[in-house]
Every structure is written in C-alpha cells, then in structure tokens.
Amino acid sequence: MTGPIVVGVDGSPTAQRAAQKARDLALRLGVPLHVVSAHTDATIEHVNSGSDQWVVSGADNALYIAEQVVKGLRTPGLKIQAGAAHGKPSEALIDYAEKTDAEMIVVGNQRLRGAKRVLGSVANSVSHNAGCDVYIANTNAE
C-alpha cells in the first residue's frame, strides 16, 4: 500500500474516534493520512472587524475542523494533512479519495444501527460506492 488513507471528520466525538483508528492504520502501514471534512455551503461571508475584513466560506469552516483534528493526531513518523471537500459527506470523501489516489477510506459506524441503517448513512454509502478499500471503524463509546 502506497496511497494515503482518507478519514472523514465533522467535529463529533465519534469522528474523532474514527480519525484515531485511521491514524493507527496509517502508522502501521507507513502511508500518509488525510483528514477531510465535507461542506455543502458554497456561500461566502464577509466579516468586518474595525478596518479589517475577512472572507469566510463553508470550505474555510470545514478546513478548520479538519485542522483541529490533525493537531490532536500528530505523531512522529506520520505524514498527515487536513483537507476540505465540497459535497455531501459520502460523495465528498469518495471524490477526495479518487483525486488523491487513496487506497483506503476510513469512516465510523455510528449510524449503522437500528432504523437509520436502513435509511442510509455515510459509512453505508461510502462502502457501496468507493473505488478503494473502506474500513468501517467501531466508533461506539467504550
């Protein structure tokens, strides 16, 4: 395996647990890890503070979430980077994985139980549509 592992995060504790498992896999396999947050908001907001003005977008917010997770995952010997991808979470992860030639996508199993399993979830959609391996991490609280 030479391509990166991609893990999707959204700032939730369960996504954090999936990211930790992805980090452990990347370390064991000696491959890079890409921590990715999806966004669907294409709007841009202008924020003023005195004479300064900032432009903030959904992509900026998604990247910020991924960067915060990356800070907590940094480990010697691991090449890790944050990314943001536009689209619904499952589609965004699959597209990002294809663009980076990822060998694996890691997602959590949080919504794979009960009635929601029938209605669909990110893990279900990714596992059925990804062009690479998919690892569904057990993210249930211990």
The whole-angstrom Rg is 16 Å
Oligomerization state: single chain
Proper CATH architecture: 3-Layer(aba) Sandwich
CATH topology: Rossmann fold
Low-confidence stretches: 115-120
How many domains? The number is 1
Beta-strand percentage? 25-35%
Strand element count: 7
The helix content is 40-55%
- CATH class group: Alpha Beta
Shape: globular
Strand order of the largest sheet: 5-2-1-6-7
Task: Give the class from helix and strand content and strand pairing.
Answer: alpha/beta
Distance between the termini: 30 Å
CATH homologous superfamily assignment: HUPs
Number of helices: 5
Mean pLDDT score, rounded? Answer: 85
**Helix and strand sequence:** EHEEEHEHEHHE
For the sheet with most strands, the description reads: 5 strands, parallel
What does this 3D model show about the protein?
It comes from Nesterenkonia lutea. Belongs to the universal stress protein A family. Pfam families: Usp (PF00582). This is Nucleotide-binding universal stress UspA family protein. Residues 1-136 form the UspA domain. The protein is of the alpha/beta class and 142 residues long. It has a single domain, classed as HUPs (Rossmann fold, 3-Layer(aba) Sandwich), CATH 3.40.50. It is 40% helix and 28% strand. It contains five helices and seven strands. The chain has helices at residues 13-29, 58-73, 89-99, 115-119, 122-129, and strands at 5-8, 33-39, 44-49, 52-57, 80-86, 104-108, 133-137. Strand 3 and strand 4 (52-57) form a beta hairpin. Helix 3 (89-99) runs parallel beside helix 5. The longest helix has 17 residues, at 13-29. The radius of gyration is 16 Å and the shape is globular. The two termini are 30 Å apart. Mean pLDDT is 85; it is low at 115-120.
